[in-house]
Amino acid sequence: MAVGEAVSYLAAARALAHARSIAVTTHLNPDGDGIGSQLALLHALEGLGKQVRVLSPSVVSRTYAFLPGFERIEVVADPAQAAAIGMVDVLISCDAGDLQRLGATALIRRATLINLDHHITNTRFGTINLVDVSGESSGVVVERLLRRLKVPLDQRLGECLYTTIVFDTGRFMHSNTTAHTFSWTARLLKTGIDAASINRCLTYTRTLHDLAIQRLGIDHLVVDAQEPSLAGISLSADEIRAVGEPQDWGDLVELPRSLAGNQVAYLMRESKDKATVRVSMRSNPPFDIGSVAQALGGGGHLQAAGCTVSGDLAYAQAQIIPALRRQLAPAAKAQ
Ligand code: 5GP
Ligand code: MN
């Protein structure tokens, strides 16, 4: 661990030890890593006698309803709701690379903001920046922090933290899966969690509507004519409306990625008003798509990143696709 990180863990643990009221938030369209991290903090900090509220800047998918404490999550989607929370001693941001990602929860009044994250592109927006890029998930960062607070692992924490690692390693399939991942996860299993049951909740809970979205994705799957190792799905506002917007887009970007020979994959989704496009990108090492997302105002990891492009779908495609081809070109030529 870098010296700076050791100092941040200590500073964050100290701030939490002294706090009375704590709010825990995560990024817009929260995922298994953000929610699992938040709920682990909820249980641990309440166990230490703190007043804790768990907030989300947007609706939380029912996929995570099995997690202990799920019903405690409050949606804070506008400035009035943020003001109603009042002043807290500490606001903890989980898994968010920049302040914009916190939506309305960025407005919550606080004495200290702990920015707990593992993204390489994190903008260090906190009062205390607990940004540990060696963590496979933000949940790993949470667990390291809990060790400083002398909170032992138990089954509830195990369930929340297991969800973070399953989500952020793509079920132990992404390139961030290492020997550490398995030994860390083994410690969670020893708390008595039912991993198979959690896996079912996270993976085998698709609705017919989710499958209709998969079909929409297959229908719009395009392999790039110039770079065959680049493939993606672009969905216009009208195409999404025809099927109905899902609450959670799941891992649709994994569909182009699953093609034999694929190195870089993308998913583009035009907003209802056609004013913005959400872009998800994935790559295999050594191809870096984090820098592509960052150059367009987004961020993430080297191999999993996203951004929001202002403009319609055709405009976003013109920005993204040539940039992704450029990431592939030098290495392809060197082979
Ligand atoms: P996804 O494609 O699943 O939405 O996101 C992939 C990764 O990139 C996640 O770790 C996510 O937190 C990060 N990410 C996605 N969109 C953005 C964005 O607009 N800004 C930043 N900073 N990170 C993002
Ligand atoms: Mn994460």
Summarize the structure in words.
With 335 residues, the chain is α/β, with parallel strands linked by helices. Helix content is 40%, strand content 20%. The chain is built from twelve helices and twelve strands. Helix 2 (32-47) runs parallel beside helix 4 (138-148) and helix 5 runs antiparallel to helix 6. The radius of gyration is 20 Å and the shape is globular. The two termini are 34 Å apart. The model has no long low-confidence stretch (mean pLDDT 96). Residues 33, 95, 118, 137-138, 168 line the site of manganese (II) ion.
End-to-end gap: 34 Å
What's the helical proportion of residues? 40-55%
Strand portion: 15-25%
- Biggest sheet character: 6 strands, parallel
Number of helical elements:
12
**H and E string:** HEHEEHEEEHHHHHEEHHEEHEEH
Number of strands: 12
Q: Which small-molecule ligands are present, each listed once?
A: guanosine-5'-monophosphate, manganese (II) ion
What global shape is seen? globular
Uncertain spans:
none
What radius of gyration results from the CA coordinates?
Answer: 20 Å
Average of per-residue pLDDT values: 96
Task: Please state the structural category.
Answer: alpha/beta
Strand order of the largest sheet: 3-2-1-4-5-6
Write the layout of secondary structure elements.
Elements: H1 3-18, E1 21-26, H2 32-47, E2 51-56, E3 73-75, H3 79-85, E4 88-94, E5 110-117, E6 128-131, H4 138-148, H5 155-168, H6 179-189, H7 195-203, H8 208-219, E7 221-223, E8 230-235, H9 237-243, H10 254-257, E9 264-270, E10 276-283, H11 290-295, E11 299-300, E12 304-310, H12 313-334
Parallel strand pairs: 1-2, 1-4, 2-3, 4-5, 5-6, 8-9
Antiparallel strand pairs: 7-8, 9-10, 10-12, 11-12
The protein binds guanosine-5'-monophosphate (5GP) and manganese (II) ion.
